[in-house]
Amino acid sequence: MARPRTPILSRELIRHTTLRLVDEHGLDALSMRKIATELDVRAPSLYNHYANKDELLDDIAATIAENVDVSGFAGDDWQDALRTWAHSYRDALAEHPNMVPFLASGPSNRPVALVRADAVHGGLTRAGWPPRTATMIGASIKYIVVGSAITSFAGGFIDDIDTYNERYPHLSQAHRLREYAAEIDQDSFELVLETFLSGLTLQYAALDTR
Amino acid sequence: MARPRTPILSRELIRHTTLRLVDEHGLDALSMRKIATELDVRAPSLYNHYANKDELLDDIAATIAENVDVSGFAGDDWQDALRTWAHSYRDALAEHPNMVPFLASGPSNRPVALVRADAVHGGLTRAGWPPRTATMIGASIKYIVVGSAITSFAGGFIDDIDTYNERYPHLSQAHRLREYAAEIDQDSFELVLETFLSGLTLQYAALDTR
DNA sequence: AACGGTAACCTGACACTGTAAGGTTGTCCA
DNA sequence: TGGACAACCTTACAGTGTCAGGTTACCGTT
């Protein structure tokens, strides 16, 4: 075959197919040839649309990032804006757990910009936080979300199973254990997020009376 | 060559060499043949000491984990024990930033046991925290440490450079920027950790009067 | 209406990866 | 003295990301 009358591939199609493969079989099982096979095409053809594998994965990461909701920072409730941001951020990662290791494995120009640093920083400074503190608060939330996502979704609790078995012997079925781990993860995320937010509120109050 | 009179390789030697290579050139640049070359040996010989590459990396992860200090949980100051744990945990990861993505990218039986869940859980319950809450607190600290490590050490701030440039134009030299990012990371870690700990203290007080 | 450039597919190939199979030899214990 | 085992070796295989170069469809210009 040479050039087809109507194009077979597009960045969008490649992205969707790749993300589906990653969701189904994991990052390690992904290869350019498997993506191509899935699309009834040879691997090098993909390079007409993406310069290399990383650029493809970066693009997927960017589309995931688009689902993160920073709209709250336009309003004036900075606490709730942070809460909404953190939750939607975590949800976005939870939707594609197999992508999380990639997202976190920098070191290049990856959408650590999931952060949407500008919106967050702007909202916080408008609320009265000093610029530097605003940056630090944004980073803190990012730590909580990314840390939670990576240790939870990447199968983190698997080797803690023995611990859980001793501690909660009635949870002997692996199936229930997994459920339980997910529940603990969710609650832990809630705990650290809310505790942090209420601590910030205290510091915010101290700001005014300074 | 056949069997040498005195063994050339050992798990320890392989581990050290590999960790050095990872520190110097990163995880992506690592291959069994490069490790072997560094040791003046052929790659398959490594398999006499490690079943596969992952087992080798797991072993390295375990030695890194040994530097995490959980001794504080033997005492009765749970707050300070958590603080010490978190700091030494983060320091251990900071010492080998290129290993962080691997450590976090489980899904297998990786030393997410960096957690030292038992010591932490034991110390907190002895201090009076309910078992389930103790588990959640341990998980929370882990989120903060791992999240901080991965977004900082894996070059997380690199693509935020533009943001920093606009915001702090006098930091125009990339060199200073990098320093500044590290400083922000350190301070953010401190902020989220201390804010979380002081929030916990409030909840702890509420426990007693319940 | 013919022509050139570019886009989008192809085949083939390269260097490199992890690791399995099996050969050879030194060391140690029965 | 002999056999088991350990620790190196060479060879080889299937799979990886990606480059080079070939072919053809389309689109804009002359």
TrEMBL record, chains A, B:
Gene3D superfamilies: Tetracycline Repressor, domain 2
DNA-binding region per UniProt: 31-50
The keyword Cell membrane appears for this protein: no
Coiled-coil spans in chain: none
HTH tetR-type domain ranges (all copies): 8-68
SUPFAM superfamilies to which the protein is assigned, alphabetical: Homeodomain-like, Tetracyclin repressor-like, C-terminal domain
Short name of any one Pfam family annotated for the protein: TetR_C_1
Keywords: DNA-binding, Repressor, Transcription, Transcription regulation
Protein name: TetR/AcrR family transcriptional regulator C-terminal domain-containing protein
Species: Rhodococcus artemisiae
Phylogenetic placement of the source organism: Bacteria, Bacillati, Actinomycetota, Actinomycetes, Mycobacteriales
